[in-house]
Amino acid sequence: MVGARQFDEQEVIAIALDVFWRKGLHDATMQDLAAATGVQRGSLYNAYGDKEAIFLRAFDRYAEQFLEMVDRALTQGDDAAARLDKFFDVIIVNMTSGSPPRGCLTTRTALDAAISSTDVRQRVRGVLGRLEQCIDKAIDAIPATKAAIDSKRLARVVVTFTRGLAVMERAGYSRKQLKDSAETFVQALVGKA
What we know:
The chain has helices spanning 9-23, 30-37, 41-48, 51-73, 80-96, 105-112, 118-140, 143-146, 151-170, 175-190. By secondary structure, it is mostly helical. Helix 9 packs antiparallel against helix 10.
């Protein structure tokens, strides 16, 4: 059938996500995407428009999966420290997985955002904002922390710290070093049960 896609769109987006995660939005090329997906550049252009459109689709998929993992982690534990410990475990595994480790897609994209379009910057801010909301909701749900901690402000501090972890990972810090830093941060922030 003329005009029908001859490829599995979900698979192509998943492979494109991997390419963007390894190379970044600006360093990945349409040729990289075509080679990785096995779909000709012309077909990619016809299906999606351009490289940024493919990236936005891949980033949206990443964001949904990532935020679901975060949300699950933030429901584990009876106090803020336990929930934040589980959250940081997810964050650190996410950025240190792969060979070589792939880093944090959101942070990598945020650093490129100065030269990216408004759509890309909005997607990054959207993920960071939703991340704050997940943390706020999890901390605010614990009765003992409601009076002691402004959960919205704490959530912003936690998200800010995750960006620092992402930079430290890129600088070569090990998973164990990142976990040690996160554990110290949680202890300083909310104490340990």
